[in-house]
Amino acid sequence: MPHRINEKIRGLKEVRLVGDNVEQGIVSFDEAMRIADHLELDLVEISPNAAPPVCKIIDYQKFLYHQKKREKEQKAKTAKVVVKEIRFGPQTDDHDYNFKLKHAVEFLKEGCKVKAYVFFKGRSILFKEQGEVLLARFAQDLEDYAKVDQLPVLEGKRMIIMLSPKKPVK
Question: 161 with 88, same domain?
Answer without folding.
Answer: yes
